[in-house]
Amino acid sequence: MKAKAIGIMVIVIGIIMILITSLDLKTTEKVADLGPVQINKQENHPIHWSPIIGIVLIVGGIVIIVTDKNKT
Prior knowledge:
Elements: H1 2-19, E1 22-34, E2 37-48, H2 51-71
Antiparallel strand pairs: 1-2
């Protein structure tokens, strides 16, 4: 039962990685602090991945589920 749940989770993560192929992380950095006046700089840090990784995860999840069924 545990392997089946892990397989389903891997498949769901794979589907999400196919649908969403990038994330943008934003960080705020303090540039200057002049008493009551603060100057902040916001930077975007994009993270991109290939949809092929999602396909590999889906196939891996299916393999986990199938091998679990063979053991029982």
